[in-house]
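Thanks for the sequence, V.! I ran sphingosine kinase right away. Repeating your input here for the record:
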Amino acid sequence: MDEPDAARQRNGPAAGARMHGLFTDTDTGRLTVALTLSDSCLTIQRISCASPPEHLDLRDCLGSRAHRGESEDQGAQLCVYFYAYRRRWMASGPVRQRDERRFRLALGTEESDEDASLREAERWARAINTARRPEHTHGVFFSEVRRPCGVMVLVNPQSGRGQAMALYNGHVQRMLTEADIPHTLFITERQNHARDLVRSADLTQWDALVILSGDGLLFEVVNGLMERQDWEKAIQTPLGILPGGSGNALAASVHHYTRASPVWGEDLLTSCGFLLCKGVVSKLDLISISLSSGARLFSFLSLAWGFVADVDIESEQFRQIGALRFILGTLLRLASLRIYQGKLAFLPAENECGSDSASFSPADSRLPDHLLAPLEQPVPRNWTLVEEQEFVLVLAMFQSHLSEDLLAAPDARADDGLIHLFYVTAGISRVALLQLFRAMQSGTHLDCGCAHLVYRRARALRLEPLSAPGVMTVDGERVEYGPVQAQVHRGAARLISA
Ligand SMILES: Nc1ncnc2c1ncn2[C@@H]1O[C@H](COP(=O)(O)OP(=O)(O)OP(=O)(O)O)[C@@H](O)[C@H]1O
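Predicted structure:
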């Protein structure tokens, strides 16, 4: 049996704690601190002053690392990285903020063996990393990303205002290192590069695919995975999203599902980065979208036609101003408000088990659409046909957020198996429409009492535009214009989230 290190004897566990030991706080110089690690927190007690102990919640801990001392007479260092919620001036609520704590092993002269000191620091780091693993508290399926793991990080350097690489260098790389997650960076060079990469990748090498970009790059990744021969296995690869685009709707949704106050920009990146490093995997709904050409796409976010789709695509020209492009695009489109003619039908969520469900078996065997009839045939009898045929917008949401600051479907969850269908009928005034979008910033648009806004929960839908060719988007990406139908496939993919 190995002799226990002298340092280890000195830092042995106290009663009721996993570990207990004496360290020097490297930030305050000579001050000696006693650290106590329990299953839920790291307690810091400053010995030479009478201040109360500080309890740091391990749920906020991203990781811990040990380093050799800077010189021979110094003990090894223990670094612990916390990202607790704290209030910040001007922020609307508490935000996760980085807080690095460094401690030096307090070794006596007879224990100045560098290796022993490092071993003890490593033992602490391992114990903290084991204790910080998240609790599994809810009953739905979830598991964790296997450790050690390899993560493919895909960055679109052109997304948003072109700041994604700066976000990687300034934040993401550091967080992944702190959490000890090995990763490989892939910088996309063109449209469909990410799609091609994941279509041909050896997925046994990757335990997660992480997208630092807008929703468009994740749309490519999802569809690239679904185009593989082994799509059933491939689509089970955990997907992570970090906001680097201008819309960042899925990233905002993932943050919203934690029930924390809304955050934007780099605070949203920190929140999503934290969730990514915690590595809890939940299910993600995929929505199959069938187009009139026979093409089938897989979506995780939204299907839009009319006002929202027009704003999304028309505002691309203002990409340099980031998320503000949507506000500018909204104002411009309001000025020339259009009416869109079309037919809309949907299967209400509560009717799914009805006897009239379609039993359509398309040639495409990937996630068969058992609720849909062929596009050229009428919809099944248990569907609802919307009487109105003049719309200002039709918007099917599959997640809570339409963009970082538009909470379109506040009750949506990543795997709720629902299409949150909104439509606004013709006749709404410009002022009322603007008010709806303003209310959507706080998710209160359904409380506006607007008679032109309709919201339904559905499992499937069909939309047949009758207007002259225009814009239709899936996950913010423009798709072929024409009749389209969609069905939700509950929890068909996996998402790293809360
Ligand atoms: N290097 C590149 N140059 C040009 N386009 C690229 C490159 N890499 C990826 N793309 C394409 O850019 C498009 C937009 O990407 P993405 O959605 O990630 O950013 P965004 O549009 O700024 O964000 P959001 O969707 O949140 O508004 C995608 O269709 C993607 O295929």
